[in-house]
Amino acid sequence: MSDEFDSRYSAMCRLNSLASALDPENRERALALIASLTHRGVAVVSIFHDLEAIQRLASRVLVLEKGRLVAERSPDELDSRLASAAR
Known about the structure:
Layout: H1 3-8, E1 11-16, H2 24-39, E2 42-47, H3 51-57, E3 61-65, E4 68-73, H4 75-86
């Protein structure tokens, strides 16, 4: 871990597709919990498959392909690139 990471976050939590298999009510509760953790200074590393959750919670988005990092973007940059690609 870099010194920058250590000074910005007091703890780290890793989640793997936490909200993907939940019903809508519990999905909202899980996303609210993640938001609460980040507001308290906990770094949350998670896998998300839906853009709404990414835009709502992420400060950085890392895109992996076959285990390799292919892009690092802000959620807004990711959304604008996807919108451009869809046109």
